[in-house]
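Re: the 163-residue chain
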Amino acid sequence: MTAETSLNRRDWMLRAAGMLFGGAALTGVFPGLTAAASTAATITVYKDPSCGCCTKWVAHLKANGLATEVHDRSDMDALKDSLGVPKALRSCHTAVAGKFVIEGHVPASDLKRLLASAPRKVLGLAVPDMPTGSPGMEMGGRADRYAVIAFAADGTTRPFAHH
């Protein structure tokens, strides 16, 4: 048996135990493991209290199985500055998902893919502006084409998805 097979078996057994015991059995033995899993599962959303499209984006996340915690703020530019969101990529709301920053109307499917792949050099994803047809910006059957952009702390960007 190779070390890789043994590692995969161990990971599988940990996941199975977590599902069987609802994580309770692992909490005492591996507190960091269960804390990390719950942190990644909750998306913390920061939005202006009067923004309706932000509320619709949160509903989109929930409809796609993502847990959210919402905070209304009036100092969004200061928050975006502190999180490293490039000015050219900014939109209306900002979220934090695990170690990643999510800016604007990023589809839940792209957010899930980011969390699953966890690329090391990516600080976050952004949908600049507010494209019609993006989650939370639905307007009948009209939908603009838009890109989801991955950005790094050093300011580099690259396309992550196209819609």
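The mean pLDDT is 82.
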